[in-house]
Write a structure and sequence with these properties.
Helices cover 63% and strands 9% of the residues. It is of the alpha+beta class.
Length: 268
Amino acid sequence: MKIILSIALITFSIITWFFSEDQRLRRFEAQMKTAIEQNPELLAEAILDNPVLFTKTLDEAIEDVQDEWDNQRAAEESELIELALQFPLSPLVREDEVFQGAADGDLLLVHYSDLACPVTARSFQTVKKLLKKYPARLRVIVKHLPQKMHANALISAQYYEALRIQSEELAVNFHAQLFSQTTNLRRGEPFLKHTARALGADMAQLANDIHSKEVEKRILQDMDEAYTFGIQASPGFLLNGVPINGAYPLEQFEALIKKIGSRHYVTN
C-alpha cells in the first residue's frame, strides 16, 4: 500500500512540475514579446550580437514557409487537374496545324510558346524527351504566346507562321533553330532572316506573309485561347485538355499521362 501511495505521489509531482513548467514558459514568452514590442532595439542588438544564429533561424523559417506554400500550391494544382480531367479544355485544332510526333496519337500536347524566351526553349527539351518516350502516342502543336518583355517574341512568331504557309518542314526546322540559338536571337530580325534563308525559304514570299492579316489573326487566335484557358505566360501547356502553367519537369508530365490513362479525348 505504501509503495502504491509513493508511486501516486511521485506521478502527481511530475505532472504538477510539467504543468507549472509549461505555465512558466508561457509567462516568459509573453514577457519577452512585451519587452521586444516596447524596446525593439533589443532585437536589433541581439541580431548584431548573433548574426550567424539569426541568419540560420531566418533561413529555416523561410524554408518552412516555402514548404507550406509549395504544399498548398501542389494541393490546389492537384484539385485543378482532377477537375480538368473530368471537364477537359478543348483547344482549336485547325486543318493546317503543324504536328510533331505521332499523327494519330491519343495524347495531344499544345505548347503555348514565346519563341524568344530562354525558359520556353528549355521547356521544349522536356517536350522532346516526351516525344522520344511516347513516340506512338504523343503529338505536339506549337501555338504562340509572345511576351512583351521579349522584344523579338512577336516578330519570331510572325516568321514562324509565314514559314508555315510555305511548308510545315520549314516551320518545324525554324522552330528548332530558334530554340537552339536563343542568344543569337538578340540580333533581332537580321538573325531571323538569316535563319530563314539558310533553311531555303522563299524570301520574297516570306516578306509578303510576315505582316499579313492571316498571320496576325492566327497569332492573336493562339494568344486568346491561352488566356481563355488561364495560361497567362510562356511556357504553358495543355495536355489532353489539362492546363499546365510553367516549365514543369519530365516526371510531372509522366504522372499526368499516367492519370490520363486511356481516356477518350475530343478536340474541336
